[in-house]
Amino acid sequence: MKKWIIIAVVVLLALIGVSNSVYTVQEGEFAYITQFGALVSIRPNAGLAFKIPFIQDVNRLTKKQMIYNVNSSEVLTADKKAMIVDSYSIWKIVDVTTFIRTVNNIGEMQKRIDASTYSVIKNLMGQLEQSEIISDGEASRTSLNNQITEQVAASLMPYGVEILSVEVKRFDLPEDNTTAVYARMISERSQMAASYKAEGEYEAAKIRNETDKEIEITIGQAEAAAQRLRGEGEEEYMRILKELYNDPAKAEFYLFVRELEAMKKSLQGEKTIILGSDSPLVKIINQVSD
Amino acid sequence: MKTETVKMIRLVGLIVLVILLIALGRSSFFSVSESEQAVLTTFGKYTKTVDAGLHGKLPWPFQQVTILPVNLTQKIELGYGSSGNNQYYSIPEESMMITGDLNIVNIDFFVEWKISDPYRYLFETDSPNVILKNMLQSTVRSVVGTKQIDDVLTTGKIQIQADVKEMLRQHLESQDIGVMILDVKVNDSEPPTEDVAKAFRDVETAKQEKETALNEAIAYKNSKLPEANAQADKIVRAAEGLKQSKINEAMGERDRFLSMYEEYANFPQITRDRMYLEALEDILPNIRVYIDDGSNVLKLLPLDGSDSTNVLPGSAGN
After folding, report:
1. Which of A66, B37, B91, B119 is a plausible cystine mate for B126, CB 3.0–4.6 Å?
2. How many Å apart are CA A16 and CA A64, to the nearest integer?
3. pLDDT (tens digit, 9 = 90+) per residue, B153-182?
């Protein structure tokens, strides 16, 4: 009976010993062994691993790339415009030993990232004009991000971390500036609306005036043509009649006919004439009455 | 008493055994649905990735399985969120951004993505979904920051979508978090406030008014020009008519004269006298004629027969 108890105790102790000396390292993490607080070894690869039970402790740190949202901050651009900058950083632990010695804790590291990013962004953006930061092409935005990343990475290297990227994800105007921008946008649009309206009126007037001018020209030309035609008519009239009085005999007769006609015309209606006794008419009358 | 205790212990043992077996069974098999893949680790170390179906594994604590929705198309709504029953709400911090010409636009994106590399997604990246969303925000602002407000609001959306997708793809290439972008869409792109939106609409209205004014002017032109042409034609035709009638008049006169002249040439004096007399016939009936023969008596025509001489009232006393 006593023997069984001893065996049981031994087995139990063995189990505890084994379970205390065997551990697994998961994918995506570093395990490191400390002995009374001192770092003994690092296990970077996943799988089953062993340690001295009781004396040594297993600690873990993530190997994964992590994101840290840097607190948004207000910066001044080179042209003294305040902007709100929101950025994030992607980082990971690469040198466990250094990391443990210098910060030993993710939360603490995030504070360092925060501080470093803030000062780098403030610095870099302070050298650029607002419009350069906002409106420059993708290339320069990318290069700005790259510069920030580079500088933050360099400043945080002593902590055993790698800064994979720092990206500005928001670059906005402070609240009161926003209102000013809205006002400016509205005034710009009103101006555009007004100029469209004026353009419309101007171009419409131009078309009307052009039309009126064309009408004037058309009518004018027509009237000129009409004058010419009348002239031609007159000319033709003269030409036709000219045949008649080119010949002296005809001309004499023509004159006589015209005289008669003129007389008929002028003596139309109730009129009185006084004739001399030697007038041909009177002679005719005298002949008749004799 | 003793046999009952033994029975009791056996029963309990049996139950424990069954529970253990069930637990073992549950821990030894897993099923993966069509939209998923499963990642298997042995003592924490990556072993393999398996597709849909029923699979066996070593029980805990030897092997562990993580099931991921690898084939599922997942979405990110940027600038807005949706609650259960198709209710959308705006998230201004995400959707308001500055354009290249220093205006502010309210733009929403809808992005579809999926896991492309389960290993990276699971083991090399902490909260990849959060990283992806942040990358998207950064990319979207970069792209919109290069565009003009009018492009962003109107015709530039397609270009923005393409640019965001391409830039995000490059991002993910240099910083692999085990996901891929399937599609980027601009959901809504609007002026930032109602007042600004109204100003933008006013511009559209003004454009329309401009068109209208131009159309009216063109209509004026199209109706007035033909009218003027018609009038011009009328003037010319009238003048042509006048010319022709003048010619006709001349020809008529000539013909009449020539026919008269023909007669006259044959018998000049007779014709002459006849014409003269005819003319007198035409005139005399309506005319009073006095003949002054040197005396104080004027003979008065017409000779109506009864009294061949008359005395002018003025010369009666002489």
Report:
1. A66
2. 31
3. 988 899 999 999 999 999 899 889 999 999
| Interface predicted TM-score of the whole assembly (ipTM), two decimals | 0.72
Are A233 and B276 in contact (CB < 8 Å)?
no
In CATH terms, is domain A66-172 a member of 3.30.479.30? yes
Range(s) of the domain holding residue B10? 2-68
Residues 187-206 of A with CB under 8 A from B: 189-190, 192-194, 196-197, 199-201, 203-206
Q: Which residues of B touch A272 (CB under 8 A)?
A: 287-290
- pTM of the shown model: 0.71
Among candidates B193, B221, B279 on the partner chain, residue whose Cβ is nearest the Cβ of A211: B221
